[in-house]
Specification:
It is found in: Cell membrane. Belongs to the multi antimicrobial extrusion (MATE) (TC 2.A.66.1) family. MepA subfamily. With about 450 residues, this protein is mainly α. It has 18 helices and no strands. It is globular.
């Protein structure tokens, strides 16, 4: 099957099979991506020590902020390409590909320069203490130096999925994970490079995968491929990419802001080990969040194509299946957090105090996860169909509108317990908000369908 046939099947193949075909590789790839971050933390926690885990947790806002800029370009471009393919506008899709490469280079290099110039003040603002800042600095110096590689790697993976190559995107991520594990063993275990070794392993593994990704897009026979004349930025294409990508950008930027608030409140009310406990809980949670993100990535080209092709019934069906799958994933996360929290925490550290705090963090952090899968899918759905304002609001609601006020208020009354309690309270509030907005939109769709039938 050539690329054009693979693209056309988005509007004809049964939705269930199509979602499995696109979502499974993306879910495997995203889960693998979270696994190599976990592997880094396991090596660091077991070999370097508990304070290194806390130092690594301080870098989460950096990772989220970098992901925010990457999502603004990568996810925005992949969604725009999917819509153009659904409209059979192959020339514009080709130009979006070239503009995406250029944007990733500009954003990746600019982000690195700015952050490296102000690294220590930024880390202090993120919640680093005298004990944890050396670890955080050592890690981020290497990560930021290779940031343009990370931007390009994640951006090209999103475009591979949009170009009907989900298996290639999965293979790129699995290769990155495998190489990261091998390099972690060499750099941390054998050569004793510590936390800096984990950073080198991440950047080098992504660089090798990026070379393979670029080779995939160098195939001149492919529907979308790299060629001369597509790299000069065009205002209307850049605006289209950014207008779609603004929602995932804000979601990741909010995650950055939220982690800053959480880290600072945890340091204030619980000390450095409380930050480490959150780092462990967040690492486990990210496995399941990445599953849902992968599901959303698999849903994105199907929803985007069928929205562009005005096939509303198929659009609603893929939404339904994605919500069911996401809910099952998050229920599994809830069960693991409540049935096996000790074993999750023990992977990262041998410190009894850190294990005890991590167990508590796991149980509370995932308390409302059974409803979060729904909220994530609905937010992504509105992004896929170009309802940018709704998607932005839902992206902001869980993290910015609800969680930050709770983080400021509850700890004043309940101390460290108030910091932890803020997480599940914001989760359930955001899920209810998403359900209300989705109900209103579904009623509008039904009324529109009734009018079309009468006509």
């Amino acid at each position: 099957m050539d690329n054009k046939e693979a693209t056309l099947e988005l509007g004809t193949k049964p939705i269930g099979k199509l979602l499995a075909q696109y979502a499974m590789p993306a879910m495997i790839a995203m889960t693998a991506a979270s696994l190599y971050n976990i592997i880094d933390r396991v090596f660091i926690g077991q070999v370097v020590g508990p304070l290194a885990i806390s130092g690594l947790a301080i870098t989460f806002p950096f990772i989220n902020l970098g992901a925010a800029f990457g999502a603004a370009v990568g996810i925005g471009a992949s969604t725009a390409i999917s819509v153009k393919l659904g409209q059979r506008d192959y020339a514009t899709a080709q130009n979006i590909l070239g503009n995406t490469v250029t944007l990733n280079l500009i954003v990746g290099i600019s982000f690195s320069i700015v952050c490296l110039l102000f690294l220590d003040p930024i880390l202090r603002f993120f919640g680093a203490s005298d004990a944890t800042i050396p670890y955080a600095r050592s890690f981020m110096e290497v990560i930021l130096a290779g940031n343009v590689i990370s931007h390009m790697y994640f951006g090209m993976n999103a475009l591979l999925r949009a170009a009907s190559k989900p298996r290639q995107a999965m293979m790129a991520t699995i290769f990155t994970v495998f190489m990261n594990i091998v390099l972690d063993i060499i750099f941390i275990w054998w050569w004793h490079w510590g936390i800096r070794g984990a950073a080198f392993a991440t950047v080098i593994s992504q660089a090798l995968a990026l070379c393979w990704q670029m080779k995939q897009f160098a195939d001149q026979k492919a529907l979308l491929h790299l060629k001369r004349g597509i790299y000069r930025l065009k205002k209307h294409l850049v605006e289209n990419i950014i207008s779609i990508g603004i929602s995932p950008f804000l979601m990741n930027a909010c995650a950055c802001i939220v982690v800053i608030f959480i880290n600072n409140q945890l340091v204030r009310y619980g000390g450095d080990l409380a930050v480490g406990a959150y780092g462990i809980a967040n690492s486990i949670a990210m496995i399941f969040i990445m599953f849902v993100i992968g599901l959303n990535q698999g849903m994105q080209p199907i929803a985007g194509y069928n929205y562009g092709a005005q096939q509303t019934d198929r659009l609603m069906r893929v939404l339904k299946y994605a919500i069911i799958a996401a809910t099952c994933i998050m229920v599994t996360a809830w069960l693991i957090a409540h049935l096996a929290p000790y074993y999750c925490a023990r992977m990262f550290t041998t410190s009894p105090e850190l294990i005890e705090q991590a167990i508590k963090a796991l149980k509370i952090n995932m308390m409302m996860y059974p409803v979060i899968g729904y909220q994530m899918v609905v937010t992504n759905f509105f992004q896929c169909i170009g309802k940018v304002k709704i998607s932005i609001f839902l992206s902001l609601s869980r993290q910015l509108l609800f969680l930050i006020p709770l983080l400021l208020i509850l700890p004043q009354f309940f101390g460290l317990n108030g910091v932890w309690a803020s997480l599940p309270v914001s989760d359930i509030t955001a899920a209810i908000t998403a359900a209300i907005i989705m109900t209103i939109y579904m009623r509008r769709i039904r009324r529109q369908n009734v009018k079309e039938v009468k006509q």
